[in-house]
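Obj: model holo form, ligand = PPS.
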Amino acid sequence: MSRLDVTESFAGIRLPGHLHTQESLEFASTFPFRHSDVLLVTFPKSGTTWMQEILTLIYSSGDPHPAKSIPNWARNPWLEHIYFKDVLQEREGPRLLTTHLPQQVMAAALRKAKPKVIYLARNPKDVLVSYYHFHRMANFLPDPGSFNEFLLSFLDGTVHYGSWFEHIKGWLSCQEELDVLYMTYEELHQDLEGSVKRLSAFLGRPMQPGQINAIERHCSFTSMSKNTMVNCTLVPREIMDSSKSQFMRKGIVGDWRDHFSSQQCELFNKKYQQEIGGRCQQFQWTMD
Ligand code: PPS
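Output (holo C-alpha cells):
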C-alpha cells in the first residue's frame, strides 16, 4: 500500500495516486463496455456504497450472501482504480461497474456499447460535509484544512475528482444519447422500496415483494454499518483512520445544516444558482 502522498492529474482533475495511475485512468477512459454492463456513476460521497449494495442485492435476487462475503470494490469495481483489470478478469454475465469520472472522460467509450448507466446524485451541501469528514480520515486524500477552506476548494472545483458542478452538468447533458437513470440519495432515503422498484424496472430485473423487503433490511444504514465488506473497517488504519471519522458516518439528509454558517450558505447558494440554476429541479433536495 503506497503512493499515499501522490496526486495524479488526468483530464484536468486531480485524483489520489494511491488508487489511480495514468495507466489505470487511461484504461477506464477507453474501456470496452458491453451492452449488458451496468455502470454506476457518482461524484464521491453521493451514496455510491449504498447503491452498490442495492445493485448487488438486485442481481442476487435479494440473497445477502454476496454482499456479506465479497468486498464492494470487488463486486462493483471502480473502472479507474489500479486493481480494476485484475478484478474484472474473473467476471461473467452483467458486470456491475462503478466510476467517479466525469462524463467527458467516459462519453466516447459509453457511446459505443450503450450500457445501462445509473447516475446517483446527492445534495451537494451534504456531499461537501461528507467529503470533508472523509478527508479527515482517508490518508490518501490531502489534509482538508478548516471546513471553510475545504468549502472554498469544493466551490472552486479543485478538490480531488474535480468540480461537483461540472460533474453533474456533464452527466445531465447526456440523457438523450445514453441509457441513463437519474436517482438521488434523498430519494433512497425517502422511499427505498419505490427506489428499488424503479431500479429493477430500469434494469429489467423483476423483484418479488419478499426480495424487496430483504434489500430494504440489508441496505439500511444500521445493517450496512455492521457489514465489514462495505464499512471500511478492514482497511488498515494508516490508510483510513476510523478514530478520526467513520466511513459509514451518519447517513442522514441535511447534515449540512449543522456545519454551514449563514455566510457559507449564502456563498454556496450563489455558486449553485450560477452553475446549476433550474437544472436539478427534479431532484429532491433543498438549498435553504
Ligand atoms: S465514496 O467514498 O465516494 O464511495 O462514498 P459514498 O459511498 O459515495 O458516500 C458515503 C456516504 O453515504 C452514506 N451511506 C449511507 N447513508 C444512508 N444509508 C445507507 N445505507 C448508507 N450507506 C452509506 C455514508 O454514511 C456517507 O455519508 P455521510 O453523510 O458521511 O454519513
